[in-house]
Design a protein that fits this description.
Among the domains are: 134 residues, Ankyrin repeat-containing domain (Serine Threonine Protein Phosphatase 5, Tetratricopeptide repeat, Alpha Horseshoe), CATH 1.25.40; 72 residues, Tetratricopeptide repeat domain (Serine Threonine Protein Phosphatase 5, Tetratricopeptide repeat, Alpha Horseshoe); 52 residues, no CATH class. The longest helix has 20 residues. By secondary structure, it is mainly alpha-helical. It has 24 helices and no strands. α17 runs antiparallel to α18.
């Protein structure tokens, strides 16, 4: 307990010393500066910054009355007005405005003005006060983002009050940032349905693309915002508008977002079966890699249902059947895959290996022969042909094939 009391005495002495050094400093400021100095934060904050941030109107007024500069900046370039606006202290904002605080001052970190902060943190009364005082509604930060842009993706606000105030003050709802993202694109990305509805009512361009070619609908699909997708489709968004060759429906199915996929299909998106098959193939490959062979079989089967001529689905399901011990099913699928894609050497090798593994050496000869016609230096195929010849009793030919395979670096053949 003694050390706690000693620490308290030292801290109290430090506060009193600071107060003695600067009689205009309040105790809260003194404690805050000591605490922040120890935590290495809030660099170059003065008492007026602490007062503006915590909403202490009297302390702010006292500081200004004793000559503290109204636009005094922190190490991050923040002024008292920015801090008051950010933290929602309207009375202090009004006091600072009345004393001609700099409305267009920008912080050093991101170039925000006080209006940016008020819009971002949802302080509508402060937004009104700043605009009424003459703040630039289209002030752009380091990335050309305006207060409206900033407000447009704040879906947690749940309404468009800030946007209405800014638009009434003359904000440009079409202004894009340095990556081509308009407020509508940002609202769609965040799933801010009320904002999307409002911006569209103003005439925002639903077909606008950013510098990556992304549309509002694409952003909403990527963010899994079903209600935003529903609204955009109802307003006429193109359900097939591709981004980098990828259709919204393909993206939804790949992400297993069946709700959005159904919305897109119901609103005219095409190629559902192809995209669904692609998604099923992806899930099947993941399941196979994870050793979930029943899951892989189901996924590849779903792909086959969607695309009955998809040779790769039969091939991969055949591998999964083999891995799970269903050898007759594996043989049927691999044979079907080869019938659909007669030149596929991967299928030829897989089928030949299955025949060799099950002792059906005679059937292995045909696919191996065709495989070696295309790939004469395929060491595994030579080894399998050696196994087949050995199984059929042709020991001399088998030895020759094993020797060739060993010479090509296939070590299992070297011991045969």
């Amino acid at each position: 307990m003694k050390w706690i009391f000693a620490a308290f005495v030292i801290a109290l002495a430090a506060v009193l010393g600071v107060l003695a050094f600067d009689p205009h400093m309040d105790a809260f400021c003194a404690v805050s500066r000591l605490r922040d100095h120890a935590a290495d934060r809030h660099a170059q904050w003065q008492c007026i910054h602490y007062a503006a941030a915590r909403g202490d109107r009297a302390a702010v007024r006292s500081g200004l009355d004793h000559g503290v500069r109204i636009n005094l900046r922190t190490a991050d370039g923040q002024t008292p007005l920015m801090l008051a606006a950010r933290n929602g202290h309207l009375s202090i904002v009004r006091d600072l405005i009345s004393r001609h605080a700099g409305l267009e001052a920008r912080d050093a970190r991101n170039g925000f003005t006080a209006l940016h902060w008020a819009a971002d943190r949802y302080h509508p009364a402060i937004v009104r006060a700043l605009i009424a005082a003459g703040a630039n509604v289209d002030a752009a930060n380091k990335w050309e983002q305006t207060p409206l842009w900033q407000a447009s993706w704040q879906a947690d606000q749940g309404n468009t009050e800030i946007a209405h105030i800014l638009i009434a003050g003359g904000a440009n709802f079409r202004h894009a940032d340095d990556h081509g993202n308009t407020p509508l694109l940002m609202a769609a990305r965040a799933g801010h349905r009320p904002m999307i509805d409002y911006l569209l009512s103003l005439g925002a361009d639903m077909a606008a693309r950013n510098d990556r070619g992304q549309t509002p609908l694409y952003q909403a699909v990527a963010g899994h915002h079903a209600e935003a997708v529903r609204l955009l489709l109802a307003r006429g968004a193109d359900p097939d508008a591709r981004v980098g060759g990828v259709a919204p429906l393909a993206m939804a199915l790949k992400a297993d977002d069946s709700r959005i996929a159904d919305l897109l299909q119901a609103n005219g998106a095409t190629d559902y079966s192809r995209y669904a098959a692609m998604a099923a193939m992806k899930h099947g490959r993941i399941a196979y890699t994870d050793g979930d062979y029943p899951g892989a079989i189901r996924a590849f089967g779903a792909a086959i249902t969607m695309q009955p001529q998809l040779a790769d689905a039969y091939y991969r399901r055949g591998l999964a059947f083999k891995a799970s011990g269903a050898l007759s099913d594996a043989r049927a699928d691999l044979s079907e895959a080869l019938a659909l894609d007669a030149g596929n050497n991967d299928v030829r090798e897989a089928l030949a290996r299955l025949y060799v593994d099950t002792g059906d050496y005679q059937r292995a000869l045909a696919p191996l022969g065709r495989l070696l016609d295309d790939q004469p230096d395929n060491a595994r195929a030579l080894y399998l042909l050696g196994e087949s010849r050995h199984g059929l009793g042709d020991v001399s030919s088998a030895s020759d094939y094993f020797s060739q395979a060993c010479g090509l670096g296939f070590k299992p053949a070297c011991s045969r």
